[in-house]
């Protein structure tokens, strides 16, 4: 799903782009695909936000950051949390995936490949340091709910892998 | 207010809250850094799901109800979680066995709840099932690793499975109010999940070289608010702040 198919008014985009994920600061909320709607109604910005994971503590921070960002241009924001449809890693933009990799987090693989690597059956996750796929899973649960911990067997670098969620 | 719906939501949500609290106790105390992080990640997922359920329940209840008042201000008898989830973290074998016995059940419920006629519940389940599938994978893997590991790890996980087995039958009890919600297509008919549950659990236990308990003695009561002796201590921890400083916020 790309941003064009969502109801996000274009004049709000520059401000939305200034708000990033507190855990992965290189990703804006638009890159991450958590903004499902942003419209201005009677002078108030109405935003629909969806969580990546149910317990994601970043949601409260993102809500506050959105309010603060629009406050700088004198606008009030009303944030509504929506659960359906459930967020998917498919909603992260290609640009977002590239930024994530440069930041040191391996991008989510396809659903079947994701299962294979998390069960330790195949070596498909690319090391973000040296690019080798000779990597192994250290833990299915990483520093945040959305990531798993991997280690490269060539350069020995530990790194995060963004789990596929569909 | 729809009392049946409200109670049904709490029945589902309280399992997640209480298990999240148990897992939260392990924060900083896990046997290795990775398992510590994994267990607290699972705790966070469950707590997130609980919040979604309670926010919805608070809307149904109206008045001054909030997700926090539902979580922190009820009395022990008003919690409707099954006995299994309130059992203590005796040792790592217990943590894994409890998680595994719950995850298989939880996954089945989420699968069915996605088709609920109540769209709010369906949305929470649709979101949560992805998380629960990770939980189930984690706990099943560990059951196998412990069962198929050393003789000591096998003995410890066997001990935990034997001790917790008597809480499994309650998972499939249906209360009168739940039956009404089942008839309306809102609730999951858990009684129909029983056979598949024991089949799936047994399969993993067999693979893990763990003997399937044969005891037919089962304990129940949590769903009706009659809890084991551990529940009071757990709530004392969970509710400490709100009971000591009523209405405090931060």
UniProtKB/TrEMBL annotation, chain A:
Where does the signal peptide begin and end?
none
Residue ranges of domain PaaD zinc beta ribbon in the record: 113-163
Q: Where on the tree of life does the source sit, at the highest rank?
A: Bacteria
InterPro entries for this protein: Fe-S_Maturation_MIP18, FSCA_dom_sf, MIP18-like, PaaD-like, Zn_ribbon_PaaD
- Residue limits of the MIP18 family-like domain? 15-80
Question: What name appears for this protein in its UniProt entry?
Answer: Phenylacetate-CoA oxygenase subunit PaaJ
UniProtKB/TrEMBL annotation, chain B:
An annotated GO BP: phenylacetate catabolic process
From what superkingdom does this record's organism come?
A: Bacteria
The cellular component terms of Gene Ontology attached to this UniProt record, alphabetical and capped at eight, are: cytosol
- Supply the source organism for this entry: Cochleicola gelatinilyticus
Q: Which NCBIfam families match?
A: PA_CoA_Oxy3
| Name of the protein in question | Phenylacetic acid degradation protein
